[in-house]
Amino acid sequence: MKALKIVMYVVVAYLTIIGSLYLFFPDTAENAFGIALSDRSTAMLHGFGNLIMAFLVYTTAANLETYRKLVTVFQVFAAGEAVIFAFQLLSGMYTFAQVGPPMIIWSVFTVLLFIFGRNR
Q1: What is the pTM of this model?
Q2: Please, are residues 108 and 85 in contact by the beta-carbon 8 Å criterion?
């Protein structure tokens, strides 16, 4: 379970950084990810959602008994993020430089969560 905690804390750090950029520094997020935010309010909601999920993952990592109850939520969230980024890449909405890294990160998180989810 120690490896699971480490993965969860990495997810917390990632979500906190991405969420903070979108919520508090949308211009920096545009420059960092090479995208043009068409709607600032949607970017703020995306950032807030990431920060809420980071908080949920953090509280769960602190008490892994909670993880046993919420494992499916984390698996669906991670898989959904990977699928959305893959769709954006394959449909040509964004380039690999823009959505490739988060797609890879979420794909890895999804695989790890499914591996650790079997032990519930």
Answers
A1: 0.69
A2: no
